[in-house]
Design a protein that fits this description.
By secondary structure, the chain is α/β, with parallel strands linked by helices. The chain contains 15 helices and 15 strands.
Length: about 400
């Protein structure tokens, strides 16, 4: 079988599935992407192709509601141009697997109409009930509601042509209207539980570059793609400030980027991380910061953690939550719907109301002082990943079954 994976960044959600197909030795596997993730490593046997945009989306000549649609069209055209080159070189995929929403999958069926298409449908935008307006008393403005609703245009276009549709979690699937939800197959990407497993003797000390934290020092960790409100950074920062004042022995390690992945940047030029560190007093000698890490260093951080924090508004669930569970971390997390699908309060972690920074500090401090409770939560956290089929072999089996169904027509 000839397979083409499509995403803005290589390899993203298709890291494991592409490697599995390449490893079987029976398939020709290509990957079309605009860029490459910093954690990306080559996949033996996979052939990568890049596409470029004709121009960056500027939205100067289009309606404000259509800014994302303009971007999607530009990505679609860029991917189309590269697809035409591949067709001219003789490549005819039997199957296209692509992330829907960026736009790069929009026009590929125009090039290869006979190819089967499986879309990865991560999110459907709603003007209420999830991320938009979360935590605010005032209703969402009509202008915002209409703009957000229009974001769904390229997603619905892809779903109309898809022969199969994959969505990673039940809660994310629930964001789609019922008529569209029925087309989705829910299946997580898969966690490498061999890579992300607890250290044999419990939390280890941490030595990364100039950072040295002994194993007997209570360490609280917070890992995020970007420090921003979507991932609860203001609430986490407020809670950490209270924790550091209460517990004189603990250290805090923050890992992430000062860029903005979701939502908006601040208008004052500060990064969200720097704003919070200015807003909430913290002892700088006890708060450490690392930029995004490669997997081995990231695993060391999780293994060294005494208490790991994960916060998110009602939005796409992060891989980092699942990886921390698999590593056996003791979790204190936001009690928001995507998290509640995976963690039961008091069983695999402690859930705290999203805006309750005081309780974040209280629960984290309690667990730092209770080794027995930490160990029990961590053991159940890892077991949750194994028992609920979030492990890589189980997830890959489901994805391969979907491919078989789609290819069988």
């Amino acid at each position: 079988m000839k397979v083409l994976f499509v995403h803005c960044n290589f390899p993203a959600q298709f890291r494991h599935l592409a490697a599995r197909l390449c490893g079987e030795g029976q398939h020709t596997v290509h990957f079309l992407a605009r860029g490459k993730e910093w954690t990306a490593s080559d996949i033996p046997g996979l052939i990568r192709h890049g596409y470029q945009l004709e121009r960056e989306p500027t939205a100067q000549l289009c309606h404000p509601y259509l800014r994302r649609m303009e971007s999607a069209v530009l990505h679609g055209q860029g991917a189309l141009r590269e697809a035409i080159k591949l067709r001219q070189q003789g490549f005819e995929p039997d199957l296209i697997v692509g992330h829907s929403g960026f736009g790069n999958t929009l026009y590929l069926k125009e090039v290869w109409p006979q190819a089967r298409f499986i879309g990865y449908f991560e999110w459907f935008y709603r003007s209420s009930g999830s991320d938009v307006g979360f935590g605010r008393d005032e209703p969402t403005s009509p202008d915002t509601s209409l703009r957000v609703h229009t974001y769904n245009a390229p997603i619905v276009m892809d779903l109309a042509l898809a022969d199969g549709a994959l969505c990673p979690t039940q809660w994310q699937a629930s964001q789609f209207p019922e008529a569209l939800r029925q087309r989705l197959t829910v299946g997580f990407d898969g966690i490498d539980t061999e890579l992300f497993q607890p250290a044999a003797d419990g939390p280890s000390g941490l030595e990364l570059g100039d950072l040295h934290i002994p194993a007997d020092v209570p360490l609280v960790t917070y890992v995020t793609r970007c420090f921003e409100p979507y991932r609860g950074w203001p609430q986490v920062a407020a809670g950490l400030s209270l924790l550091l004042q209460r517990n004189p022995h603990c250290q805090v390690l923050l890992v992430g980027s000062d860029e903005v992945a979701y939502g908006s940047a601040r208008g004052d030029g500060k990064s969200w991380r720097q704003w919070a560190l200015d807003e909430y007093p913290m002892d700088p000698s006890r708060v450490h910061y690392l930029p995004p890490l490669q997997y081995e260093q990231y695993r060391q951080v999780l293994r060294a953690s005494w208490v790991h924090l994960y916060w998110t508004i009602p939005f796409i669930l992060s891989w980092s939550l699942m990886e921390s569970l698999s590593t056996g971390c003791c979790l204190v997390a936001s009690g928001t719907p995507p998290v509640q699908e995976v963690i039961r309060d008091g069983d695999e972690g402690i859930l705290v109301p999203f805006h309750d920074s005081q309780q974040l500090a209280d629960q984290t401090d309690r667990l730092l002082r209770d080794c027995t409770a930490r160990r029990a939560l961590g053991q159940r956290a890892r077991q949750r990943i194994l028992d609920q089929g979030y492990d890589l072999p189980s997830c890959l089996l489901g994805q391969l079954q979907l491919i078989d169904q789609v290819m069988a027509g």
